[in-house]
Amino acid sequence: MIDFPGAPHLPGRNARPDEAVFAPLRAGLDSDDPVRLAQSPAFDAGFKAFAARYYWEAHEFWEPVWMALPPASAERHLVRGLIQLANAALKARMGRARAAARILPLADAALAEAFGAGNTAPMGVTRTRIASLRQQVEKESAL
Fold first, then answer.
1. Can you give the residue range of the structural domain that contains 37?
2. Across the chain, which distance is largest between two alpha carbons, in Å?
3. What is the DSSP-derived secondary structure letter of residue 12?
4. In terms of CB atoms within 10 Å, which end of the chain has fewer, N or C?
5. What is the distance between the alpha carbons of residues 17 and 21, in angstroms, rounded to a whole number?
6. Residue 19: what pLDDT?
7. Is residue 74 part of a domain?
8. Does residue 109 lie within any of the structural domains?
């Protein structure tokens, strides 16, 4: 169970969450094995934060996973794309539609790299799940 702050962080608009929120879920990221990292609490917490519309927090959970992954790997491209989706959703939520529109193609490119060369579900993430996340970003843009 993740104890999210009372409201999602919106940079420049409200206080940054206490780092203690993230620390326990970032534990165990001392491997570069994509299988282990896919099973990490931080990776899972990123999806939970995203689903709850805590986009800045999703980025904070996914970033250390991304940093631990092997360079230029499909998995690293995947997590970079997830981070960019979270960033686009955050910008949309903050009323910065042009920034969101600029970031979405970057996310799409990273995710295309992740799913290229026959990768059907890097780190257990399917194209269907990515499509669902992208739809959420588009809904944020419509708000």
1. 32-142
2. 43
3. T
4. N
5. 7
6. 85
7. yes
8. yes
- Domain contains 26: no
117 secondary structure, DSSP code: T
Element (H, E) at 41: helix 41-51
Question: Residue 11 is encoded by which pair of tokens?
Answer: 């940079």
Instruction: Report if residue 1 sits inside a domain.
Output: no
pLDDT at 2 over 80: no
Contact call for residues 69 and 37 (beta carbons, < 8 A): yes
pLDDT tens digits, 34-67: 999 999 999 999 999 999 999 999 999 999 999 9
Instruction: Kindly report the CATH number assigned to the domain that includes residue 58.
Output: 1.10.3450.10
Q: Which of 18, 38, 15, 13 shows the shortest CA–CA distance to 28?
A: 38
Banded model confidence at residue 141, pLDDT cuts 50, 70, 90: confident
Dihedral sign for Cα atoms in the order 85, 88, 92, 94: positive
Query: Are 97 and 141 in contact, with CB atoms under 8 Å apart?
Result: yes
Tokens found for residue 62: 């996914």
Could you say which DSSP state residue 70 is in? P
User: Which has more confidence, 27 or 104?
Assistant: 104
Q: Domain tally for the chain? A: 1
Spatial separation of the C-alpha atoms in residues 105 and 18, rounded to whole Å: 31
Cα of 78 vs its chain's centroid, Å? 9
